[in-house]
Amino acid sequence: MVIRDFRVYHISKKLTKPLPNAVYTLEYIEHVFLELDTEEYTGIGMGYTFNTAQAEAMKVLVEGYCRDLIGRDPSFIREHWKKAQSTMGGCGQTGLPMSAYAVVDTAMWDLIAQDAGKPLYKLLGAKTDVLPVYGSGGWLVPQEEMIKEALWFKSEGYTKYKLKLGFPDWKVDISRLTALRKAVGDDFDIMVDVNQGWNVKQTREIVPYLRDLGITYLEEPLHCQDFKGNAELAATTDIMICSGECLFTSKEIFELLRLGGADYINPDLMRCGGITEYLQVCSLAGAFHVPVTAHVLMEVSAHVMAASPTGGLLEYIPDWWNEAFTQAPKPEAGKLRLLDTPGLGVRFDHDYIERYQYRG
C-alpha cells in the first residue's frame, strides 16, 4: 500500500446563528478536509478552526505533509509521526502545525484499517461499538432559545445536555440554570462549560450554587494551562472538574493528569495530533484512572473512545458538521453505534464541499 495522491479542501460554513460563549463569539465553522489516496483506498481526515486565515494556513500545512508522504506506505505511521515532528521544529511542535498533522494522521489510520478489512475501532481493540452521546450547545443566547434546545435534545432521547456559563454577572448563569432545571426536570443531566472564563476564587464561590441545582460536571472553569489552579479546584471542591480540550499532545495532558488537575479529561483529537497521539492520551488517562470524554469530532473520536480504557462519552454539536457526510455513524436517542465498515466508515459529501468551499 502506497500513497499516490491527495486532495485538501477548505470549507467555510456560516453557522445558523452566532454562538457566543464567555470569551468569544463563533459565526463560521472552517473545516479542512483531506482525501488521501492509495492504489485501492481513499482515507479521510478532518480538522477545524473558527478563523478563515487559520484554516487557509492549516490547508497549506496539510498539503505540505501530504507531499512528503507521496510514494510512502501509510502503515509505518509512527515513523511518519516522528518525521513530521522533526519538520515542526522551526515553527513549534504544538498549535497549528500539530492540528494540521492530525488531519493527515487520521487519514492514514483510515487507510490502514481499510487495508486490514476492519473498522478502525475493532483494529484498535474495541470494548464496545455503542457509545453514549451528550447534546452540546446552550451558548450565551436568550434563555428561551437555550431551554428550547435542551428540550429538543431531551425529546430526541438524550439524557445529558451541556450549556455555556460565563455572563459578566454569574448570578445570571445561576438564574438561567434554575429555569433550565425547572424545564427539563431532575431526571436529566445538566453539564456546564465556562470555556476558561473564570478564576479559582470565582469558581469556588459559584460551585455551591451549581451543586444545589444537581450539577456535577464543570468543564474548563480556568485557563487550560493553569495546572495548579485546576488541581486546587479538583482537590477542594465536590464537583467534577473537566479539562484538556485546548491542550496539545500527550505532553501537556500528562502535566494536567500528573498534578491531579481534572476528574475528567476531554481531549480534542485534532489538537492532540490525530489518532496516533490520541491513543497515547487515552492510555495515559487509563493509567491515572481518569475518565475520558471526547471533544467534538465525534465521528472519528468514537473509534478511539471505543478502544480506550476509560473513554466513552461523545460530544454532539449538530450544526457544525451537519450534511458534511454521505456516510457516517449517526447518534440516535443519546447513543452512537459505530458502523461495521472497514476504516473510519466516513465519507465526505462532495455537494457539501462544492457548496461551502472557500474561494478567497
Structure description:
With 360 residues, the protein is of the alpha/beta class. Helix content is 43%, strand content 22%. The chain is built from 14 helices and 15 strands. It has helices at 52-69, 77-87, 95-116, 120-123, 143-155, 170-184, 200-212, 227-236, 249-258, 269-272, 275-287, 298-307, 318-321, 350-356, and strands spanning 5-20, 25-37, 42-49, 130-136, 160-164, 189-193, 217-219, 240-243, 264-265, 292-293, 311-316, 325-327, 331-332, 335-337, 347-348. Strands 4, 5, 6, 7, 8, 9, 10, 11, 13 and 14 form a ten-stranded mixed sheet that branches. It has a three-stranded antiparallel sheet with strand order 1-2-3. Strand 10 (292-293), helix 12 (298-307) and strand 11 form a beta-alpha-beta unit. It is globular and about 60 Å long. The two termini are 35 Å apart. The model has no long low-confidence stretch (mean pLDDT 97).
Strand content: 15-25%
The radius of gyration over CA amounts to 20 Å
The count of strands amounts to: 15
Largest sheet report = 10 strands, mixed
The ordered string of helix (H) and strand (E) elements is EEEHHHHEHEHEHEHEHEHHEHEHEEEEH
Give the low-pLDDT segments.
none
Shape: globular
Oligomeric state of the chains present here: single chain
Helix content: 40-55%
Report how far the terminal alpha carbons are from each other: 35 Å
Q: Structural class given helices, strands, pairing?
A: alpha/beta
Number of helices: 14
The chain-level mean pLDDT equals 97
Tell me the layout of helices and strands.
Layout: E1 5-20, E2 25-37, E3 42-49, H1 52-69, H2 77-87, H3 95-116, H4 120-123, E4 130-136, H5 143-155, E5 160-164, H6 170-184, E6 189-193, H7 200-212, E7 217-219, H8 227-236, E8 240-243, H9 249-258, E9 264-265, H10 269-272, H11 275-287, E10 292-293, H12 298-307, E11 311-316, H13 318-321, E12 325-327, E13 331-332, E14 335-337, E15 347-348, H14 350-356
Parallel strand pairs: 4-5, 4-11, 5-6, 6-7, 7-8, 8-9, 10-11
Antiparallel strand pairs: 1-2, 2-3, 4-14, 12-15, 13-14
